[in-house]
Design a protein that fits this description.
mainly alpha, 2 domains, 5 helices, 44% helix
């Protein structure tokens, strides 16, 4: 079963001021497909955390993302498990104060 479809929200609305849209979504339907974004939005913490914590069911590897053509590679955001951890740990010293 697919979540409800929002075919009225525009990319401009999401770019200019998304907070009223997120507030409406949280109140009406916290899991919703946004047609013009071609994505499913999860707008409540518990739902987002459940998806993040279950890479077996909800993989970050999305072949439809525009990131792969733009960067000609998978970015860290599109990797799960050991592959994600390995790359994240490799860059952490550069992002940690005092190192």
């Amino acid at each position: 079963m697919l979540p409800p479809l929002d075919d009225t929200t525009t990319i401009d609305q999401l770019t200019l001021d998304p907070y009223p849209i997120y507030r409406r979504m949280r109140a009406e339907t916290p899991v919703i497909r946004v047609a013009l974004a071609q994505r499913t939005f999860l707008v409540k913490y518990d739902d987002t955390k459940a998806v993040k914590d279950d890479p077996e069911l909800f993989s970050s590897n999305d072949p439809r993302t525009p990131m792969q053509p733009a960067f000609r590679a998978h970015t860290l955001m599109r990797k799960d498990g050991p592959e994600h951890v390995r790359e994240r740990m490799a860059m952490m010293p550069a992002l940690t104060p005092g190192c």
